[in-house]
Amino acid sequence: MFKVKATQHVLAVKDLEKSESYFLDKLGFAVRFRVGGWSFLSLGSFHVMLGHCPDEVPARETHNHSYFAYINCDGIDDLYRDYQQRGAEICQAISDKPWGLREFGVITPEGHRIMFGEDIEPSENA
Length: 126
Known about the structure:
It comes from Marinobacterium aestuarii. The chain is α/β, with parallel strands linked by helices and 126 residues long. Helix content is 17%, strand content 43%.
């Protein structure tokens, strides 16, 4: 039977060291391993492969297309407070949405955006 065990996202970055540091220090990821111009990072079962690609268009220049992941989670308020304390760049403040999710978003130094969401009861006004 098919089952998703984890997700792994591949991101092109111009400054591998700076990007890796942000994911580790601000977003709480851990290093799985490094090889060549790649850093393999994880936050639970959410995995990211950062690839050193100095000639690619920066994610920040793709505007809304720089969103690359939506993470459904539990404990979103704790995570939001942790990210605020760590100095992560919040691009969307935490709020309850009428579609039944409590959400917030972060952005990396190169402009990659991640949304986090936790299930709540949908708004009756939706």
